[in-house]
Specification:
The chain is 43% helix and 17% strand. By secondary structure, it is of the alpha+beta class. It folds into three domains: 69 residues, no CATH class; 111 residues; 213 residues, no CATH class. Strands 1, 2, 3, 4, 5, 6, 7, 8, 9, 10, 11 and 12 form a twelve-stranded mixed sheet that branches. Strand 8 and strand 9 form a beta hairpin. Helix 2 crosses helix 3 and helix 6 runs antiparallel to helix 13. It is elongated and about 120 Å long.
């Protein structure tokens, strides 16, 4: 209780500083006068009596400073003093003040933007049910360790032979395709996914339906598409007229059959605007080879799976070497070693945060912004710095997807 009372008194002193200063000055003068009177009674000369009284009392300023430290909150008071000093300094040089404020505003805006991008691209969790059960299954390339794509035929082999995964979906996200709808053509980020992609993630449509298993069997047959919630609202005003509408992806017509739920952006760092079946991969990419049946057509898809009940990531890793297609071992020109697996917890589950093509420049941009902000706040750059939490001025391989 005593501590609370002392804290309240200290806080109150912040708002009654003039009153307390007047009381302190009066009390010191009273003590000094009493000491002088006592000395005068002994016959001491008035000037000598005052000198001796002052020597006994000590430095008046030191006594006042000590009292202030015990009376108030020194940290807050010092900060307020330094802020007032900084404002007076800034007010005395208007040109410098405007330059400093504009520089600080631009730098803080840049840092905020870069950090927001870093969060959106590399840290945002996957919008899926039970994301802790999701794993990435990838190929280890001897010549390109950061690449994790496989051919669709290799994906199908791994999917059909895995005993530790409940489901395994193929997807290819990234790059920009030309999307035409309602007379508008613009570049969007698509996602080419297998029929099991949405069910694996536990995603339900907000309108219409998602891909069926039958639409994941015959290459080039089913020209159907699912829109993102953002594209649906932008192009059709969130109305049911979007169902049955025809959109073109890289010049290939697709019929809209459904809309993904709000807040679902796929599993790629760049939000996906339209989803099309993997069976249409060759058509929209304009590939001359069979990207679905021919492993030699090149790496095309990435894989994400869900653990079977009672299984763990270690089980998947132990099983992974046995899932390698036969041609990986027999083809001397093949650069793959064996499948591997890891947990998928970020918005970019198919790319290591460290190896992600965007990570290096995001980190560099963050460092540049912080250093610029520091320079602006330094004594040399801004000539004004305040006390804690500041410092006192007078004291101290471009990403490639869905193809070769």
């Amino acid at each position: 209780m005593r501590a609370v009372r002392a804290l309240l008194l200290r806080l109150t002193s912040l708002f009654r500083r003039t009153h307390h200063e007047a009381e302190l000055t009066a009390e010191l003068e009273s003590h000094l006068a009493l000491d002088i009177d006592e000395r005068l009674k002994t016959g001491t000369d008035p000037a000598e009596a005052r000198r001796q009284a002052l020597l006994r009392l000590g430095s008046v300023d030191s006594v006042k400073e000590s009292y202030r430290d015990r009376r108030g909150l020194p940290l807050i008071e010092t900060t307020l003093q330094d802020l007032r000093y900084a404002l007076r300094t800034l007010r005395s040089n208007a040109a410098f003040t405007i330059t400093a404020l504009v520089t600080l505003a631009l730098t803080m805006g840049a840092v905020s933007t870069v950090l927001s991008l870093y969060n959106a691209l590399l840290l945002r969790p996957i919008a899926a049910s039970r994301p802790e059960e999701l794993v990435v299954v990838a190929a280890v390339h001897r010549n390109a360790p950061s690449s994790e794509r496989v051919s669709y035929a290799d994906y199908a082999h791994i999917r059909d032979h895995s005993k530790t995964l409940q489901e395994l979906a193929a997807h290819c996200s990234g790059g920009l395709f030309l999307l035409t709808y309602n007379g508008i053509t613009k570049k969007v980020s698509p996602a080419i996914v297998s029929a099991s992609f949405f069910s694996l993630l536990g995603v339900k449509p907000s309108l219409g339906r998602l891909f069926s298993a039958d639409e994941d069997r015959v290459p080039g047959r089913d020209n159907v598409a699912v829109l993102s919630d953002h594209l649906w609202r932008e192009g059709w005003g969130a109305t049911a007229t979007a169902l049955g509408a025809v959109v073109k992806v890289n010049g290939v017509p697709f019929t809209v059959i459904g809309v993904a739920p709000k807040g679902f952006h796929g599993v790629d760092p760049r939000p996906s605007e339209v989803y099309i079946p993997t069976m249409m991969l060759g058509a929209v990419r304009g590939l001359k080879c069979d990207a679905i049946a021919d492993p030699a057509c090149g790496p095309a898809v990435q894989m994400i799976g869900r653990l079977r009940a009672g299984r763990s990531l270690d089980d998947v890793k132990a099983e992974a070497p046995t899932l390698a297609p036969e041609h990986w071992r027999t083809n001397a020109k093949n650069t793959k070693a064996e499948p591997t697996a890891r947990m998928a917890s970020s918005a970019s589950p198919t790319a290591s945060r460290r190896d992600h093509p965007c990570s290096w420049w995001l980190v560099s941009a963050c460092s540049w912004g912080v250093r610029t902000l520091e320079a602006c706040c330094s004594r040399e750059g801004a000539a004004v710095r305040v006390s804690w939490p500041f410092a006192r001025p007078w004291a101290r391989h471009r990403p490639v997807c869905c193809g070769n």
